[in-house]
Every structure is written in structure tokens, then in C-alpha cells.
Amino acid sequence: SGAKMRQGRALRSGKYMDPEADVKFSDVAGLGNIRVELEEIVDFFTHAEKFRRRGSRIPTGILLCGEPGVGKTLLAKAVAGEAGVNFFAISASQFVEIYVGVGASRVRSLYSEANQNAPAVVFIDELDAVGRTRGLTAGSGGQERDSTLNQLLTCLDGFEGKGQVITIAATNRPDILDPALVRPGRFDRKIYIPKPSLQGRIEILQVHAKSKPMGEGIDYRAVGQITAGMAGAQLAHIVDVAALAALRDGRTEVTTDDLLEAAQNEEGGQPDLHIRSDRVRRILALQEASMAAMAANCPDMEDIQLMSIVPRMGEEKGFVRFKADPLKFGYLESISRQGFLDHITVQLAPRAADELWNGADQISTVASDNVDIARKAARSFVRAGHSDRKDEDVDVEAQKILESCYARALEYLERNRSFVNVLVDRLLEKGSIWRPEFLQLVEQYAVLDKRRSSP
Ligand code: ADP
Q1: pLDDT < 70 positions in the chain
Q2: CB-based contacts of 434: which residues, under 8 Å, 6+ apart?
Q3: Residue 313: which of 264, 260, 262, 270 has the closest Cα?
Q4: What pLDDT score was predicted for residue 304?
Q5: How far apart are CA 39 and CA 79, in angstroms?
Q6: Distance of CA 46 to CAs 39, 52, 88, Å?
Q7: How far apart are CA 198 and CA 227, in angstroms?
Q8: Ranges for the AAA+ ATPase domain (predicted)?
Q9: Residue with CA at minimum distance from ligand 1 atom 7
Q10: What was the pLDDT predicted at 157?
Q11: Ligand 1 mean position to 373 CA, how many Å?
Q12: In 105-207, beta strands by DSSP E
């Protein structure tokens, strides 16, 4: 696709591009008419000339409103994927910085990158983090937010790129956005993404089941019926957990019962320590603990805020949340060489932990997802340096990187067995570990590399 072909060139200067966002509308299910509205946006890209000749106004900004996990990010990626244009993403929470002027300069570089690589979709998650009504926020933080917001307005009001760069923003709080943002010519199209209906839930379950070894005659309707009120992210999670359960039982096919059990455990995604089976909680705890332990040894990855195995709305599985959350879009904001390698190593930690704790033949799908992320990151890393490489060469080079990072993860985790065990026990006992406690445990138990004195 066009996006794929352009990525090599763009990545060299790119901080915000997500080169692996190869999502199509067929990956997004259960949204009925909303998909049609977004197909129109794709049309603006693919038939820009036609719209201009007719004198139709091409939208600058689209606001996707809805609760976490309903598919806003996925839809934005699909618009870019279908139009074959580049995709740039950032979370507005990353605009709100401690240092004055940093937010505004991030907005500028985001848009300058997008313009250089137009046509493009710019995706801004959590728009309300920067677009809150001005004046509501007191103190210097508020002032910084104003300068960032003003810069964003300037960029939206645009320049040559108009019609070539469309911004899609997501928020769950359209009600608190600064009115300047939703004026004509800015985010003047608002699309509500509701939670899926019964039919929608069935379709979403089916889309996610496609990549899993499902048995014959699965009763998706039954699963749809007991998952009322859940968002797409939770439904995707149910399918994952069901597949994991089948695998752990040594079965080759996922059954309706696996899905029903996973759905019951999901329970509206409310935080509750006891809704997951012990087995699943242990798998997740080892995954999160190994990643966090590994990250403690990586200068670019260490700013862990919270790790948890408690399911929350919109969160998949357990999670380790980093301060700037570089993993949210599947790419690293900082592309220093070491940062990239650290990112890959952290993603390989769950697989290495599987091998060390459970034996080499125990493959959890949870770890496979991380390995996928690592492999993609390794490929982007290789391509970033040499956009002209052939795919086979990229794969060979990426594989070498994966292997050396994996070796590093194995070596480090072996050395830190008791540290990881402490993290696992704490997670199983309490569900979550917040930063202060994590730092304390690092201090007490971690055996870091020499170059790292303290986290
Ligand atoms: P949001 O941006 O609204 O918080 P995301 O787009 O990040 O939600 O959704 C998280 C994940 O949940 C997606 O990557 C996808 O796996 C799944 N998901 C959510 N909504 C849908 C949907 N309508 N169809 C298929 N998968 C979905």
C-alpha cells in the first residue's frame, strides 16, 4: 500500500509516525453506519480532486467521541490504512509537559512531519488533555496548556497541507473541550462511537476469532448476550483469554465454553481482584513483572507509573503503564538506538520469563503478542537506518537484533529471579503496584547492570 511504501523515507525524520498501522475497515466490526461516515473521509483522500472541483469543503478535523476501548484509535488507523496514507499519532497527554513551550513545539513538529509526508492522517488521542476550556486550569500548568492549545489551533487552521492532512482526535469528554477547537474549519465533525449492540458484539467477537484456532459451531450469540455493556476492547480481550485457556489445557481448539468463561471473568471490566482465575492471573503477573523488571534496567523505559493485573475498562490484559506510554501506539517516541533496543528487550521479557519459569515448551499467547510487537519494532529499526533494504534483508537483520535482545532478557531475568518473584507475589496479592513501591522493590531486590546506578 501507499503507506507501506512511504514509510522508509518518512521514518528517518519521523518521531510520530506509526509505520505498522496497517489496519483496514474489515478489522473494525459492529459499528454500522459509523463506518460509512468514515468511508467518506477516505473518499476525501482518494478523490480529493473531485471534491475540490465541486467546491466541497474538505474537513480538517474529525472528533471521535466515546468511552475507552470502543475502537476510536482503531478507526483512525483504518481510515489511514484504507486511504493508503501515512498515519501519525500522539496522545495529547504527551503535549502537556512540565517545561513551558515543549507541548507547543511537539505540536509543531508533529504537523511539520505530517505535512512533509502528506497525504496523512494525524491522530490525537485524549484531546481533552490539552483542549480543556481555557481559564479553568489555574497555575503554570494551565499556561503551558494554553500555549499548546494555541499552537494546535494554528496548525489546524492550516497552510498548504489543507485537505492533504486530516486530523482525527479522540475524546471521552467532548463537553469540556475549548469551544475554539470545535469551530468550523477545525474539529467541526463530531462522531459518537457508542458501545456495540448485541449484533455489534457478535461481529466484534467474530473479527477477533479469525486469528484464533476456533472450534466448529461456536455460539457467538450466547457470548454476545452475556457481554451487554462491554466495549470492543473487552470483547477482544475475551477472545484472547479464551484462546489462552484452551492452550493452557493443551487443547488445539477454542470452545464456546472457553468464551463464556472468559466473558464471565471479564464482568464489565470493573476493577475486581478476584474475577480472574488464579491461573490466568499468574500468567499475567509473570508477564507484567518480567516487563517491569526488565524496564528497570533500561534508562529509556524505567519511568513506570503503575503495573496491574486487574482488568480495567479499555485496558487489555494486565498492563505496565509508563509515564509517556510509548507503547500505546506500538512505536517508540524516542528513536535513539539504545532506546529502541531497550524497547525490544522489554517486549521480549515475557517470552524469556515463560522459558525460565515454565520451560521452553510453554508458549503463552500473551507472550506471543509481545514478541510480535518486538519483531515489528526491530523491523522499523532496521528500515529506519536503511530505507532501501530488501524485505528479506530487513527480516534477517531484524532477527539478529531480536536474538541478541532475547539473550539479554534471558540473562538479566535469570539474574533477577527473586526480584521477579517478589513482583509476581505482590501483583497476585494486591493486583497493582504503584511507582513508589516499585522503586522501593527495585532498590531492595533488583540486580541491575553496572552502568545503571539507580532507576
Ligand atoms: P479507543 O481508542 O476507543 O480507546 P481502541 O481503538 O484503542 O479504543 O480499541 C482497543 C482494541 O479493542 C482495538 O485494538 C481492537 O483490538 C479492539 N476493538 C475495539 N473496538 C473494536 C471494534 N469495533 N472492532 C474490532 N475490534 C475492536
Answers
A1: 1-21, 96-100, 133-145, 159-163, 267-277, 300-336, 360-366, 450-455
A2: 305, 306
A3: 270
A4: 63
A5: 7
A6: 10, 12, 18
A7: 8
A8: 58-197
A9: 73
A10: 86
A11: 17
A12: 120-125, 165-171, 187-192
Q: Can you give the pLDDT at residue 99?
A: 62
Q: How far apart are the CA of 27 and the centre of ligand 1, in A?
A: 9
Q: Which atom of ligand 1 is nearest to the CA of 196?
A: 23
Closest listed residue to residue 73, CA positions, set 125, 19, 15: 125
| Distance between start and end Cα atoms, the chain | 42
Distance of CA 113 to the CA centre of its chain: 20
Task: State which ligand 1 atom lies nearest to the alpha carbon of 31.
Answer: 23
Amino acid at 52: R
DSSP state of 130: H
Give dist(CA 437, CA 314) in Å, integer: 25
C-alpha cell at 104: 507547543
Angle, vertex CA 297, rays to CA 291 and CA 301, nearest 5: 65
106 backbone dihedrals φ, ψ, rounded to 5°: -65, -40
Residue 256's pLDDT is: 93
pTM over 0.90: no
What value, to the nearest 5°, has the Cα angle with vertex 111 and ends 106 and 112?
Answer: 95
User: Which residue matches cell numbers 510509548?
Assistant: 326
**223 and 259 in contact (C-beta within 8 Å)?**
yes
Burial of 2 (0-12, 13-18, 19+ CB in 10 A): middle
Q: Which of 419, 286, 411 is nearest to 345 (CA)?
A: 411
Question: How many Å lie between the centroid of ligand 1 and the Cα of residue 106?
Answer: 26
Return all residues near 17 (Cβ < 8 A) that are at least 6 apart.
7, 10, 11, 86, 87, 88, 113, 117, 331
Q: Which amino acid is at 268?
A: G
